[in-house]
Automatic annotation (TrEMBL):
Top enzyme category: oxidoreductase
InterPro entries linked: Bacterioferritin, Ferritin-like, Ferritin-like_diiron, Ferritin-like_SF, Ferritin_DPS_dom
EC nos: 1.16.3.1
Protein name: Bacterioferritin
C-alpha cells in the first residue's frame, strides 16, 4: 500500500514527539524513583510505556503506508530538576505534541486517510488525558504545597 507522502511526513512528526516523550518520561520516572517518590515514578513510567506503544502503532502505520519511520530526528528532551519542574516540562511537551497531532489529524481528514486519522485521534485522546493529569498535579502542588505533594508521592499505594 502506498500512502500519501504528506501524511507519512505528518505521522513521522508525531512519531518524533512520541519518541521524545518516551525518553523524557522514562528519565523523569527514574529521577522520581531515585528521590524515593514511588507513586510519581509509577505514573511517569506508565506514561513512558504508553508512549512506546503509541510509537509502535505509528511505526506500523508508516510502514504499511510504504514510508520509512524516522527514528533519527529527535528533538530536545526537557529535564526537570525538581518535582514542579518535571511536571512543567512534561506539560510543555504534551502541549507541543497536541498541536502536532491536531495538525496531522486535519491533514489526514483533507487526504481522506481515515485509518491514520483514527490512530492519531487515539493518541490525541491519550495526550489530553495525560495533560489533564499533569494539570491536576500542578493544582495539587499549588493547593497543598510542594512539600506535602512530594510526601504524598513517596508511597506507591495511590498509583
Amino acid at each position: 500500500m502506498t500512502g500519501d507522502k504528506e501524511v507519512i511526513r505528518a505521522l513521522n512528526r508525531v512519531l518524533g514527539q512520541s519518541l521524545i516523550a518516551i525518553n523524557q518520561y522514562f528519565l523523569h520516572a527514574r529521577i522520581a524513583r531515585h528521590w524515593g517518590l514511588e507513586a510519581l515514578n509509577d505514573s511517569l513510567y506508565k506514561q513512558s510505556i504508553a508512549e512506546m506503544k503509541w510509537s509502535d502503532d505509528l511505526i506500523a502505520r508508516i510502514l504499511l503506508l510504504g514510508g520509512l519511520p524516522n527514528l533519527q530526528e529527535l528533538g530536545k528532551v526537557l529535564v526537570g530538576e525538581d518535582v514542579p519542574e518535571i511536571i512543567e516540562c512534561n506539560l510543555r511537551l504534551e502541549r507541543q505534541k497536541f498541536d502536532i497531532i491536531t495538525d496531522a489529524v486535519t491533514l489526514c481528514e483533507t487526504k481522506s486517510d481515515y485509518v491514520s486519522r483514527q490512530l492519531l485521534v487515539t493518541l490525541k485522546d491519550g495526550n489530553e488525558e495525560y495533560e489533564d493529569w499533569l494539570e491536576t498535579q500542578q493544582d495539587l502542588i499549588e493547593s497543598i504545597g510542594v512539600e506535602r505533594y512530594i510526601q504524598s508521592q513517596m508511597n506507591d499505594d495511590d498509583a
